[in-house]
Design a protein that fits this description.
This protein is about 35% helix and about 25% strand. The protein is built from 14 helices and 27 strands.
């Protein structure tokens, strides 16, 4: 078991280290740990996947433990986080960042050892439950818990993992269905798709949406079965409150001109956290603690966007959103701890252009804000190239009025390339734009996504190749000849 301890109190670091020494001496399994005295040093060394468990103090100077946990969740959705504090006051916030447990300091040995035993058991199960996959690149072991969904395209089976890695083998879905036949956490939604129910964020009439934003089609004959199976599974496992999945979008560029944001939130801690993110990206942020104050400020100043909490004193955010639209033509984005689908639907019904939950990773929050702000400030909502139409507002791609099943990453790549027709984009440029330069692997990930995108475009219409490879340079979008 790989453990990290982050605490600014040297006595607590020593205490936890002694407890882990005692724990390891009575167990056969190997326990390795490393200690950090502040959150900044810890995050500087973290890329994701280094540790199975993190013991994290909440009250630290500089970046506190809750902020560290948010950043950590962005980089590693699977790591277990145990938050430590001398007071129970932060229990709710620990839940919001998906903490594994909340311990009061000084840590009790019996309780800590029980938690460590539980983690060890989970790691053993996690290691055991999986299957081997062989292709021309080698042999891989895929854990069921790390597999988001399976897709078949033209006799090629794609295995999409929760960390963004994609493995592909030649064959059909039938060749692998037996591996999932006795598992209740996977369901076949379509003749070409298998989905991990633990990774499902929401379910619509024609598709399910995974936590990483992939839209998986549900065929008409399977809709009722898929919905019933999903509801039974969620009720049994309690997975409805699971965290949103990772999407490591990375930091994007600052806006060309400072956006003026009215941030409405009565929780000063929450306001400070989100305002700092916006300010780091060049935005000017004005606070308001309730709806009446927000409406008054809007009568005095002009804002590019209102970022609105739902649970505020007086009238709730839904009601205030409706009043904002009557008073001014300004986009409203909800930022709330309410994650239920009903709340999100109410947000859109009230006139919000997006609904962002407060457990959203920082990079994804900014990516949503930037995208929505650009769309709200631009009259162009579509790009059209012959039969190919990009609906920028709804983030859909149509070919001859038939929607293509593109992933969010594929949509972003296509949008980026089509904005500069005939320009050759290097793999590094594409990686920097889509992932913020944090996932550079020499271009392999870009090549994988580009290959799938081109294949889907060509299958939809073989009359023109919209994306061309320029040998030794990169990729170019080629519009239809007029």
């Amino acid at each position: 078991m790989r453990i990290a301890i982050c605490d600014d109190d040297e006595r607590e670091l020593h205490h936890l280290s002694e407890l882990l020494t005692v724990y390891q001496s009575g167990r056969r399994g190997s326990v390795d740990w490393r200690m950090y005295c502040n959150g900044t040093d810890f995050l500087c060394e973290m890329r994701g996947g280094e540790y199975d468990l993190v013991l994290l103090d909440i009250l630290m100077p500089g970046i506190n433990g809750i902020q560290v946990a948010r950043e950590l969740r962005e980089r590693d959705q699977n790591v277990r986080i145990i938050l430590l504090s001398s007071t129970p006051d932060f229990a709710v916030e620990s839940y919001n960042v998906g903490a594994y447990h909340y311990l009061l300091k000084p840590a009790d040995s019996n309780l800590l050892f029980q938690l460590l035993d539980k983690v060890e058991d989970e790691l053993k199960v996690q290691e055991e439950q999986g299957f081997l996959l062989k292709n021309r690149e080698g042999v891989f072991k895929i854990a069921y818990t790390k597999l988001e969904y399976v897709e078949v395209i033209n006799k090629t089976v794609f295995f999409y993992l929760t960390d963004g890695v994609i493995h592909e083998v030649s064959g059909s879905l039938t060749d692998f269905e037996e591996k999932f036949s006795d598992r209740t956490d996977f369901i076949k939604t379509h003749r070409a798709y298998l989905v991990n129910l633990d990774c499902v964020q929401s379910m619509e009439a024609n598709f399910v949406v995974t936590r990483s934003g992939h839209r998986i089609p549900v065929s008409r004959p399977r809709r009722k079965q898929v919905r019933e199976t999903y509801m039974r599974y969620m009720h049994r496992t309690g997975a409805a409150d699971a965290n949103n999945a990772e999407k490591t979008a990375g930091k994007m560029k600052r806006p060309e001109a400072p956006w003026r944001i009215l941030l409405v939130d009565d929780d000063l801690t929450e306001y400070a956290f989100w305002a700092k993110i916006l300010q780091d990206h060049g935005c000017v942020v004005q606070p308001a603690q309730n709806g009446l104050e927000a409406l008054r400020l809007m009568g005095e100043e002009t804002y590019d966007c209102v970022l609105l909490d739902v649970l505020i004193p007086g009238e709730d955010g839904f009601s205030i959103c409706e009043k904002i639209h009557k008073a001014a033509d300004v986009p409203v984005i909800f930022l709330s701890c309410l994650t239920e689908a009903d709340s999100q639907i109410r947000g859109f019904t009230a006139g919000g252009i997006d609904y962002i939950t407060k457990d959203t990773p920082v990079s994804l929050f900014w990516a949503k804000m930037e995208t929505r702000m650009k769309l709200a400030g631009s009259e162009r909502t579509q790009l059209c190239f012959g039969p190919l139409l990009l609906d920028l507002t709804r983030r859909r791609v149509l070919m001859y009025e038939e929607e293509l099943n593109l992933t969010p990453v594929e949509f972003d790549i296509l949008w980026y390339l089509s904005e500069q027709t005939e320009h050759v984009h290097t793999p590094r440029e594409i990686s920097d734009r889509i992932w913020g330069g944090q996932l550079w692997d020499g271009g392999q990930m870009v090549q994988t996504h580009m290959s799938r995108l081109r294949r889907k475009l060509e299958q939809a219409w073989d009359g023109h190749r919209f994306i061309e490879s320029v040998w030794g340079q990169g990729y170019r979008f080629v519009p239809v000849n007029s």
